[in-house]
Amino acid sequence: MTVFRLLSRQDTERLGAALGRLLRPGDTLALAGALGAGKTTLAQAIARGMGITDPVTSPTFALIQEHPGPVPLFHFDVYRLQVPEEVLELGFTEYLERDGVLLIEWADRIASLLPPDHLLLLLEIQNVGDPAEDAPRILRASATGARSRQLLELLTAQWNTEPAGGPA
């Protein structure tokens, strides 16, 4: 596990954009964290880093949004699902086979259905009880396979060369 200290919203956006630039078709990002932890902010920055110009919002009510770009982004928000298997009814398996990046908010709710190789990104507000949008956050990143380990290594190396931020 790698821990990144994100001192501001700008750090979250910078890390997300850096990760977005590293992604390629077939990658899966599993975002987790409490309500207000910054999952959607991170998702928006990842999309920008991927070269996606469409606005990215949390698909809480739509459940899935497709964003065209050099590499398409398939953005899931599974917060409202009652049981993990409901994501299968949305065509989740078919999305895994498409040439794009899967980004899943609230991924911990469907953990048993995630592909074997995914990058888990757990966001936490550093000072519990601090509701400020710009509050410092901790991002704990865990890789579950060869490609996600490579992504995490590349992201860590890139983050370490940034003028601000860096692993905690």
Give a quick precis of the structure.
By secondary structure, the protein is α/β, with parallel strands linked by helices. The chain contains five helices and seven strands.
Model description:
The model has no long low-confidence stretch (mean pLDDT 87). This protein has one domain (2-130, 144-161): 3-Layer(aba) Sandwich (Rossmann fold). It has helices spanning 9-22, 39-49, 86-89, 92-97, 146-161; strands at 2-6, 28-33, 64-67, 73-77, 101-105, 119-125, 137-143. Helix content is 30%, strand content 23%. It is an alpha/beta fold and 168 residues long.
What's the topology here?
Layout: E1 2-6, H1 9-22, E2 28-33, H2 39-49, E3 64-67, E4 73-77, H3 86-89, H4 92-97, E5 101-105, E6 119-125, E7 137-143, H5 146-161
Parallel strand pairs: 2-5, 2-6, 4-5
Antiparallel strand pairs: 1-7, 3-4, 6-7
Helix pairs in contact: 1-2, 1-5
